């Protein structure tokens, strides 16, 4: 009997099919070859590596879980595994792929007109065009129903006014999926970069997700034709369905950051000598490592279970909240524990731990805060909504 491997105590890899293992291995190799140690430098410089966009498209990772229009059409589990491997490099890299596929391409794919799909999805899948998702506003994050961005009719056109904040990919996007309030309810609009009155401003001074291109979108009398409207949906169920797609990727991705921290701490504990022996030989260090391994492997089992349900078409959004809440919480605990094992070295960007720990602070609150996912599950358990 082969002993369990410290990287995969439960043998979860054996639960994957050949295609899923191949995709995970391919993305892991891509990250090793194209990112490697540069992630720390990009984080420190607050730079997103735009040169990786085309290769990510060539690898089939952009909109990979969608079908047609040049998208790979992979399983949900395969998409999750790709998110895990990308976030093992940096949350900013996974966030780019997640926003491109789940928040920008998905609404076009699901709610767009045939012309909108043909115009945008093939180049976005190839990495020739980048998209972003404009829902969050400076004063309305957890409560998107209170958005102030408006779209009003003016003859055959629409005129948009408002501001969106914390928009991943905003400064590098060729098209923004902007959600605005109309007389008929919330509608989605495709706003090409360069449209008069539309600007994207970099949000600086971040100490988390520094590798991500984060922007504020400003719309001042932006005039769009009727063909810019996503015709397939009206109301908040449109943007909320997109967020469910993105949250699914996060519940896998956070485990990539956690795994990177766990592996860094494990390697450090084997090599770091104090009191004449490796610190991995001390009981308290072993307790920390075991706790990290337990939570990481439980999170992987949860992600795989939810992924299988998604592939079967039986994954309700409440369970996506379950996965996001549980796995991000576990990942943050793992990152913080790993930092203590590395001691002072744990705050250096020569190791990935403090970078992942800082990034996970953003992952905890974006795409739904811990409080909001708790209330989603609380409503499921009690039948009582406690949001207001």
Automatic annotation (TrEMBL):
Pfam hit, one: Acyl-CoA_dh_M
Coiled-coil annotated residue ranges, if any: none
Highest taxon above the source species: Bacteria
SUPFAM superfamilies xrefs: Acyl-CoA dehydrogenase C-terminal domain-like (SSF47203), Acyl-CoA dehydrogenase NM domain-like (SSF56645)
InterPro entries: Acyl-CoA_Oxase/DH_mid-dom, Acyl-CoA_Oxase/DH_mid-dom_sf, AcylCo_DH-like_C, AcylCo_DH/oxidase_C, AcylCoA_DH/ox_N, AcylCoA_DH/ox_N_sf, AcylCoA_DH/oxidase_NM_dom_sf, Glutaryl-CoA_DH_mitochondrial
GO molecular-function term, one example from the UniProt record: flavin adenine dinucleotide binding
Cofactor(s) annotated in UniProt: FAD
UniProt KW keywords: FAD, Flavoprotein, Oxidoreductase, Transit peptide
Any GO BP: fatty acid beta-oxidation using acyl-CoA dehydrogenase
Stated family: Belongs to the acyl-CoA dehydrogenase family.
Protein known as: Acyl-CoA dehydrogenase
Source organism per UniProt: Prauserella muralis
Lineage of the species this protein comes from: Bacteria, Bacillati, Actinomycetota, Actinomycetes, Pseudonocardiales
């Amino acid at each position: 009997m082969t002993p369990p491997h410290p990287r995969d105590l439960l043998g979860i890899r054996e639960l994957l099919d050949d295609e899923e293992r191949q995709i995970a291995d391919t993305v892991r190799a891509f990250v090793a070859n194209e990112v490697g140690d540069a992630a720390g430098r990009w984080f420190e410089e607050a730079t997103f590596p735009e040169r990786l966009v085309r290769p990510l498209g060539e690898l089939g990772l952009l909109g990979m879980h969608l079908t047609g229009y040049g998208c790979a059409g992979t399983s949900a589990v395969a998409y999750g595994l790709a998110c895990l491997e990308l976030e093992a490099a940096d949350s900013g890299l996974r966030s780019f792929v997640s926003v491109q596929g789940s928040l920008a391409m998905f609404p076009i794919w699901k709610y767009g007109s045939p012309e909108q799909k043909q115009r945008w999805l093939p180049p976005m899948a190839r990495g020739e065009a980048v998209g972003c998702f404009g829902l969050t506003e400076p004063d309305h994050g957890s409560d998107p129903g209170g958005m102030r961005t408006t779209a009003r009719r003016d003859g055959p056109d629409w005129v948009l006014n408002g501001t969106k904040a914390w928009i991943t990919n905003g400064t590098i996007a060729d098209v923004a999926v902007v959600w605005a309030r109309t007389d008929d309810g919330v509608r989605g609009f495709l706003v090409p970069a360069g449209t008069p009155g539309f600007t994207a401003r970099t949000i600086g001074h971040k100490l988390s997700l520094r590798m991500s291109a984060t922007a504020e979108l400003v719309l001042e009398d932006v005039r769009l034709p009727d063909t810019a409207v996503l015709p397939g949906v009206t109301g908040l169920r449109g943007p909320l369905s997109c967020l469910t797609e993105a949250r699914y990727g996060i519940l896998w991705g956070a485990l990539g950051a956690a795994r990177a921290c766990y592996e860094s701490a494990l390697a450090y504990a084997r090599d770091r000598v104090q009191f004449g022996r490796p610190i991995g030989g001390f009981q308290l260090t072993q307790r920390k490592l075991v706790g990290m391994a337990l939570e990481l492997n439980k999170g992987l089992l949860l992600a795989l279970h939810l992924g299988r349900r998604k592939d079967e078409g039986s994954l309700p959004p409440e369970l996506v909240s379950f996965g996001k809440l549980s796995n991000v919480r576990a990942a943050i605990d793992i990152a913080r524990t790993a930092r203590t094992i590395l001691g002072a070295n744990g705050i250096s960007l020569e190791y990935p731990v403090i970078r992942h720990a800082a990034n996970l602070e953003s992952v905890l609150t974006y795409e739904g805060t811990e409080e909001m996912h708790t209330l989603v599950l609380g409503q499921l358990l009690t039948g009582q909504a406690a949001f207001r």
